[in-house]
Structure formats: C-alpha cells, structure tokens
Design brief:
heterodimer, A: mainly alpha, 3 helical TM bundles of succinate and fumarate reductases, about 0% strand, elongated, B: mainly alpha, about 80% helix
Chain lengths: ~110, ~120
Amino acid sequence: MKNDYRARSHPAWWAFLLHRLSGLALSLFLPLHFLALGQALQGEARLDSLLRWTEQPLVKSAEIVLVLLLAAHLTGGLRLLALEFLPWRDWQKSLLAWAAGAALAAGLAFALAL
Amino acid sequence: MSSAGQFYAAAPGPGAKPEVWLWIAQRASAALLVLCVLVHLFTIIYAVRHGLSGAHILERTRGNAAALAFYSLYVLAIAVHAPIGLRTLCQEWLGWRSASLTWFIGAIALALIALGVRAALAVFL
C-alpha cells in the first residue's frame, strides 16, 4: 500500500507515529535515568543534589513530557495488543480516544501532583 | 475453524525465522511492561505528591528485596523490548538492514541490562 497523504490523514497513523517517537525518546532517556539512579551508590546526599537539579523549570517541564510519553507509549501499546490479540469488536474503534485520554490523565496527575 | 483461528493455533517451531521470535519477544515483553509501567507510573505520581527526596526514595528501596526483584524484572523486560523496537526503527527509517545492526542492537540490550541492574542495586544497597 502506498503510504501517501491519505494514510497519514488517519488518526491511526498519528497513533503509530506517536508510539514510535515516544519509544525512541524513552530509549534515549533510559540510560540517563539509570545513570542518575546510580548516583545513589555515592550516598543519599549525591542523590539529593541531583533531585535539586531536577527542580529547575526546564528540567521539570522535560519530566512532565517524559511522563506523558511513557503513559502514551503504555496506552498506545495496550491498544496495539488489544487489536492484535483480541477478536475484533466495535468498541476497539474507541481505543484511540481511550488511550489518549488515559495518557493525558496520567501526565496531568504528575504535573499537578494530584 | 476460521482461518484466523488456525493462524493463532499454529505455534512457531524451533526452525521458525528469527523475525518470528523477535515479534513474540516484543509482545511478551510488552505484556510484562504493561504491569511494570503501571506500577512505575503510580509510584512516580505517589512519590511526587509526597515530596521527592533522596531519603524518601532510599527509605522505600534500601534492603527491599521485593523492590529489587521488581526493578530487575522491569530492566530485563526493557532490555528485550527497547532494542527490538529500535531495530525496527533503524530498518524502516534508516534503511539499516546489514548484520552490523544485529551487533548494534545486541550492544544496546547489554548496555541497558548493565546500567539498569547497576541502578537497581544502587538504590537497594
């Protein structure tokens, strides 16, 4: 099938792109996350100084985006698993909306410290 | 039985192509990661709500064998899932399909395991 503008105007194409880009971003972030947690080997004070660094507005914003991406990758992945492994049902058409809504809710819960 | 039913009933044998095993590994690790990420997201939201500090984090994880087991499993699932996803991305977007890609992806998987297990131990010890 030609992957032209008609395919890209479908919400499922944007879901595919978001799933792929969020996966890429999370893969790039993971080594940094692991290295940061590894700082605990040098004691609680070292971990605290790192946590203070993350309180800067720009870093905090990046954290919110990362939580959103993690939640979006989770809900988008759940949608894919449902499409691939469950028998087709009409409610699966609404999965995109549910996935987006749940990811947004998780991001907001983190951003607003609910 | 429908043709779809027959498809699902056919389990891959030992001679199945590596692509089939990678597809299965990607889905199996995804299913495990659904649970791990859910727990992780709830922990993040809970931790931020109660004030994030080195003391709070280490209080939950130091000497906590269940947490160490959970994070080790989480790291292993990530080390399977992420490299397979990156492999597909390299193939489809970069046109990288040579044998060197297998080595590159393998190296990423090993690096993720090493860094991840080190991080899990760092907050446990």
